[in-house]
Specification:
The protein contains five helices and two strands. The chain has helices at 2-16, 19-30, 38-44, 49-61, 83-95; strands at residues 65-70, 73-78.
């Protein structure tokens, strides 16, 4: 039980550990029916491209964001199937972040 708790804490801390990740999550949650390249995400959020790449890598690793490969291009969308993401969307709506 303690190990499961530590895993949950680690996931949440990794997922919400920076302003950049929050901005990316907010964008992908607001436009959950769309897919975004890193370049397009950069048009919406004021984060440098290296931070976008690094933040997306972590969000994909914890399965909050889904990565789609099309030819040589990666596209990203929020993972609406993940229970924690659904709760996070509800929480963000409840507090007025979305």
């Amino acid at each position: 039980m303690m190990e499961e708790y530590r895993n949950i804490c680690d996931e949440v801390e990794r997922g919400l550990g920076s302003v950049g990740k929050l901005k990316i999550l907010k964008l992908l949650m607001q436009k959950s029916d769309e897919v975004f390249t890193r370049y397009r995400i950069g048009k919406y959020v004021s984060i440098d491209p290296v931070s976008i790449r690094n933040d997306l890598k972590i969000l994909v690793e914890i399965d909050w964001v889904t990565e789609f490969k099309a030819q040589h291009l990666s596209k990203y969308s929020i993972n609406r199937e993940k229970k924690k993401v659904k709760h996070l969307i509800d929480f963000f709506r409840e507090i007025g972040y979305l």
